[in-house]
Amino acid sequence: MMSNAAIDLADLGLDFGATVLLRHALLALAPGDRLTVHGVAPSLDLHLRAFARAEGHGFESADDEHSRGTLVRGTATNARWVGAQRAGSAAPDGAMDHANATWGLAARGAQVEAGAPAFAFALADKDEIWSDNAGQLYRAAAAAQWDPASAIPWDAPRTHPAFVEDALVQVLTYLIENETAALIVPAHFCAKVHPHFREVVQLLAIQAADEARHIEVFTRRALLARDQLGLSTGGGQASLQTLIDEPDFALASFLLSVLGEGSFLNLLGFLQTHAPDRCTAEVMRLAAVDEARHVAFGMSHLLRHAAHDSTLRPRLRVAIERRHEMLRHTAGLNAEVFDALVILAAGALTPAAIARGHAAVADLQTQMDSGRRARLRRLGFDDREAAQLSSLHTRNFM
Amino acid sequence: MTDTLILAAVAYDAKVVTIWDGFQKWFAARGLAFDYVLYSNYERQVEQHFDGAFHVAWNSPLAWLQTDRIAKARGRTARAVAMRDTDMDLSSVLVVRADSKAQTVADLRGTTLGVGAMDSPQATMIPLEHLAQQGLLADRDFRVRRFDVLVGKHGDHIGGERDAAKALMTGEVDAACMIDSNHLLFTQEGTLPRAQTRVLSQTGLFDHCNVSVLDGAPESLVARFCDLLLSMRYDDPVARPLLDLEGLKQWRPGRTNGYATLARSCDRFRWIDRFVQSMQP
Known about the structure:
The complex is a heterodimer of chains A (about 400) and B (about 280).
Chain A: E1 4-8, H1 18-27, E2 34-38, H2 44-55, E3 58-60, E4 69-72, H3 76-80, E5 85-86, E6 111-112, H4 126-129, H5 134-143, H6 148-151, H7 162-190, H8 198-222, H9 234-244, H10 249-273, H11 278-308, H12 312-327, H13 335-346, H14 351-378, H15 383-392
Parallel strand pairs in A: 1-2
Antiparallel strand pairs in A: 2-4, 3-4, 5-6
Helix pairs in contact in A: 5-8, 5-11, 7-8, 7-9, 7-10, 7-13, 8-11, 10-11, 10-12, 10-14, 13-14, 14-15
Chain B: E1 4-10, H1 15-28, E2 33-39, H2 42-50, E3 56-59, H3 61-73, E4 78-84, E5 92-97, E6 112-115, H4 121-132, E7 143-146, H5 159-170, E8 175-179, H6 180-189, E9 197-202, E10 210-214, H7 219-231, H8 239-246, E11 251-253, H9 260-269, H10 273-278
Parallel strand pairs in B: 1-2, 1-3, 6-7, 6-8
Antiparallel strand pairs in B: 3-10, 4-10, 4-11, 5-8, 5-9
Helix pairs in contact in B: 1-8, 2-3, 4-9
């Protein structure tokens, strides 16, 4: 049963938005229904005919002076949505086990037109990337963003001797290149994760932003009292290159977040404790808060992944062993960084102070090892495996 | 190659390759071997049609008339077997500035009219015939300023009409010709600013492109091609992007009763006489 409807556009023309009213009115009609259009805009009948043709509706010229023409609802509007698929649900638990390539960039939960182009997102399976607390971690990260300009007491007094400042600049130089690796790795995978898993994409993006901020504050602190940065060694870069080059998300996340950034948590704590001024201490404290979230996400999605994939743990083991093998002939942590850490903890260039500093760095390494072992055990490795794998972790810390 | 249906089209835009490549795959999935050749201008396409270089031509309205007249002169028969739903019942308009003194077409006497490319049915030939039928002849009663963009493509390119619209707003011409859908587009995009122009006159309805076939084409192959073309549905997600690119929702059987005004324009102004004569056997 065909029905007739009418719409009065008053003086609104199709060149100024009347198409919105027409489409809205047509949507309420069934194919074959008629919509008689009234209005006083110039060229309305002319434009109605062109509009109808373009949108797949029929058009009948007005047969009386009261209307400007009649649109006959076509089928194209409905036809476009035949076979459309809803891409999961927007709710926090709405991610599907597998994200369809043709969902592409559509918002999770959107109705996606059939025939949309397929996107080649390499990470499209939930088990590979998902963490149930990803949304919560993202919100925590978003809420915890800090402004380097106001959060850091850049003008805090600096009373330490020049050799301590030199040591600090060397450590900061080392931290900057490590944080650059920690920026590039999540940024790289952010572009490979199917956007359907939006919380993971958001988290990786804000992780990269965290690292960008760390690079900024480390650089700014280093230049407070010096014109140049310190040394960068081939061995250090070789170690970081293995992180950048790791193509597997789980393995990269394991090496970077669980082992590398996990070790860095201890390092940043050490640097906060032995910071020569309040500015440096605050820089280290704030960076450590961010890094803790990165470690938490790495642990969380690997735990979930391991629960669904029994091959993951053996692959993680091989990843550590392979990286160790690749770095066996490199120097590991460069002597300049090691010495700088000792000097920062010592605070003075006397045998007694250096002995204290050396002991503190040795203690730091023990804490790093202990932390790595604890996280490896949480991932399901037994004590012996955890100890062995922790010992194979790069001597460059990250 | 008689098992392969070959279509000819004019490459008025790079998207033409995407369209016919897509159709080729769509036909292949339904068992029809299909190929296409592209020409840079319709005259070459029409000429090659009579040389038997392909089976069907995706023709502009003017190319259809050229084909039809040459066929008649040669004792042959041309048919329009399909067209887009959007090729039916178009109209063109003559637009003037809102403050123009012209209230009727008679007031265009002594003025300058901006038209599209010299071979554009909708922006030149049909509007000039529309005026002639009302007693106003180009170059006698008013001056014509042509905006030739891509001559040989029979106005498929929007550029000439847009240039004419721009010239109307700068005062270079007193009135401009364009197809109804471009008038809507130009007013929406602001090329014709709101309330600064008005439509002085509208032509009668006419049809646009069609798929043309000459007698002697392999009948069953053409029939299969037409059946498949007409079966294309907008709810087919593979066909839909191609239909969107080609600007239609549905293919319709061809009809030839929508070319009368263009034919009269060709008779009056002898637009295509020389070409048709050059194609006499």
